[in-house]
Amino acid sequence: MSDRPWLVVGLGNPGPQYAGNRHNVGQMVLDELARRTGVTFGSRVGGLLSRRPQAVVAEARLGTLAGGAPGPRVVLAKPTTYMNVSGGPVVALARYFDVPPEQVVMVHDELDIPFAEVRLKIGGGEGGHNGLRDTTKALGTKDYVRVRVGVGRPPGRTDAADFVLRDFAKAELKDLPWLVDAAADAVEAVVVDGLEKAQLRFHTKS
């Protein structure tokens, strides 16, 4: 396994008015990963305070390797830009920490997956997701890992853009902590065990 860190990015929009939106579930997952590892997000990168930070970051080790050794190094990042310009912060951090695209993990909401399900893949299309589209453009490749957090399709004739910019429904809130926890587990599985083993675990119905 490379000794380079993994870059784990939680997509979302900045500001408290968006914090509970379906579109911000990726950042909810990053908050859970920070809680698990006991780190705090800040704008310090490599010991230097960025004058114009485009993300808040935290460095940690995630999971546990065989024999009980600490897991791989990770840089947890939440862009402070709007979703449709996420690529700039992602590519800047990837370059700064010397992270190859295959060790970039994007955690994001996914309309094409039922609510409370998690799916994993590398490469492929962006499915109309503006954050992924901008990331692909900035990185110059589609070959980065996606942790796809299912939020389901909008009901009736509800516009998809409006749907993801709404908070989770009351009926969903009771399962939301479980979903965030499962997505955090999926990120950990990817960086510790590799994508194929993680897919086998999360794509297999019990």
UniProtKB/TrEMBL annotation:
- InterPro entries, per the entry: Pept_tRNA_hydro (IPR001328), Pept_tRNA_hydro_CS (IPR018171), Pept_tRNA_hydro_sf (IPR036416)
Coiled-coil annotation: which residues?
none
Q: Which reaction does it catalyse?
A: an N-acyl-L-alpha-aminoacyl-tRNA + H2O = an N-acyl-L-amino acid + a tRNA + H(+)
Site positions for Stabilizes the basic form of H active site to accept a proton:
109
Alphabetic keyword roster:
Cytoplasm, Hydrolase, RNA-binding, tRNA-binding
Q: Please give the Pfam families that the UniProt record associates with this protein.
A: Pept_tRNA_hydro
Q: What does this protein do?
A: Hydrolyzes ribosome-free peptidyl-tRNAs (with 1 or more amino acids incorporated), which drop off the ribosome during protein synthesis, or as a result of ribosome stalling. Catalyzes the release of premature peptidyl moieties from peptidyl-tRNA molecules trapped in stalled 50S ribosomal subunits, and thus maintains levels of free tRNAs and 50S ribosomes.
- Protein name, as recorded: Peptidyl-tRNA hydrolase
Q: Which organism is it from?
A: Cellulomonas soli
